[in-house]
Specification:
Elements: E1 25-28, H1 42-53, E2 57-62, H2 68-77, E3 88-91, H3 92-101, E4 105-110, E5 124-126, E6 134-137, H4 152-161, E7 164-167, E8 173-176, E9 179-182, H5 184-193, E10 197-200, H6 206-215, E11 224-228, H7 231-241, E12 244-248, H8 259-268, E13 272-276
Parallel strand pairs: 1-2, 1-11, 2-3, 4-5, 4-6, 6-7, 7-10, 11-12, 12-13
Antiparallel strand pairs: 8-9
């Protein structure tokens, strides 16, 4: 257990085993906690397996624009995550599909054509931005070289036309192979800054938590623990949803926070009950 002066005597667990008896359900982030773009981290897998072996339920909650079912298949195949490490997967992609289900018509997709299959079965079609209801963004064209501001010409055109921006991944940045990639959340920030309407899909907004809560309808929120590495997404979202959270400091913010900064963050987040460099039992 960790304790710093800034936490005012509040103890912070640095391992899941120190917290497991207090919770029946985990809402666990994927990228940065379970894996970093390659095979799942062995220590994280073991932690989730042991939590489930003790009777707990693990719901993976991700800002991926890929819906939960295909994302679960990716976890099993691409990221080599054992099936007994999780019970269900909820994603920003599920929220995005729900958002378009209630907004039929023509849209413009900012993302690879391979993402068109996400919307199969919906009463939507995709084409040029001119005349569309708005823009759905699943990925930037080149997250390595582009920023949110790279899309300002498109965003100003959208604003003039009164179009909506559906942000299929609320992350601003992810790390993969030691490189940082800008995500659609950074573009959505720019659109919101010029007064545009944004539909946020994913953490920290409530709809993704509503979907996760439906997976465990009889579990009180006091018995649910979120685990994540993003301050603007995982930590902020868990606090807004009224559930406790364990902050994995070695993820996306690993190079940004010193001990004092981490302690200040803990002080400002009364729902934070754990601080760990990585997820481990």
């Amino acid at each position: 257990m960790l304790q710093t002066p800034a936490t005012s005597m509040r103890l912070m667990a640095d391992r899941l085993s120190a917290l497991s008896g207090r919770y029946d359900v985990l809402f666990c982030d994927i990228w940065g906690v379970l894996h970093g773009g390659g095979a799942a981290f062995p220590a994280a897998v073991q932690a989730l397996q042991r939590f489930r072996a003790g009777g707990g339920t693990v719901v993976m909650v991700s800002n991926s624009p890929r819906p939960g079912e295909p994302l679960a298949r990716q976890l099993l195949t691409i990221y080599r995550t054992p099936r007994d490490a999780f019970d269900a997967v909820i994603s920003a992609g599920d929220v995005m599909v729900d958002a378009l289900r209630t907004r039929p018509g023509r849209w413009h997709l900012e993302g690879p054509s391979s993402d068109l299959g996400i919307f199969d079965g919906l009463d939507v079609e995709f084409g040029p931005v001119e005349g569309a209801r708005g823009v759905v963004m699943t990925q930037l064209k080149d997250g390595l070289t582009e920023t949110g501001m790279s899309y300002l010409p498109l965003l100003r055109q959208m604003k003039a036309a009164g179009q909506v921006f559906v942000c299929g991944n609320a992350d601003r940045i992810v790390e993969h192979g030691g490189k940082r990639y800008v995500c659609p959340g950074a573009v959505a920030d720019e659109y919101q800054a010029i007064g545009g309407e944004v539909v946020w899909c994913g953490k920290p907004t409530q709809p993704i938590y509503d979907l996760a809560f439906r997976k465990v309808p009889s579990t009180p929120r006091a018995r649910i623990l979120a685990i994540g590495d993003g301050l603007m997404t995982d930590i902020a979202g868990a606090s807004t949803a009224g559930i406790d959270v364990m902050f994995i400091t070695g993820g996306i913010h690993g190079d940004e926070l010193d001990e004092a900064g981490t302690a200040r963050i803990a002080t400002l987040n009364p729902h934070m009950v754990g601080l760990a460099d990585h997820l481990a039992w």
